Amino acid sequence: MNIDLFIVTIYAYIFGSIPFGLLITKLFLKEDVRNIGSGNIGATNVLRTGKKSLAALTLFFDIFKGYISILITTTFFFDYVYLAGLLCLIGHIFPIWLKFKGGKGVATYLGLILAFSFKLSIIFAFIWIAAIFITKYSSLSSIISTISVFIFSLFYQGLSLNIFLFNAAVLIIFTHRQNIIRLKNKSENKIKI
Question: How is the chain split into domains, by residue range?
Fold first, then answer.
């Protein structure tokens, strides 16, 4: 048994699966964010509580857990750094504590690419902000930004990171499948900026 692989699998998934949106809203509002808006545990849905500060806090911690997973793996288990990133993202989307019903993974993905490449994180943030101002759809902005980062990486990054970014994009598009249907039907909710 590869003990390093076992350790990376455990902590990367556990970090990713911490439902900060749920914990923060329960702590400060005494509410379950899953009973609000879309029922999602991410920052966008926390924003629907009307508390921008709690949404920002959720965003920060969801980014941080992705970033810290890669930072630890780069320091101690470098050979498994891309696996750690994927497992952290999977943990956020499918947390064992919430019957495998988690968030969309976008903020955690941002934390991961921030750790991998500052340039890619800036590209993601710039495109997401531009898209949200144009469309007012958080879901569409997230999909566009994620795909854009992958396309950009094909020209400037190595194969291993490109493979990770492709898998991450597939996961994030998968988590937005209902949003895509609502966008097509013009029934997707816009967010107030």
Answer: 3-185
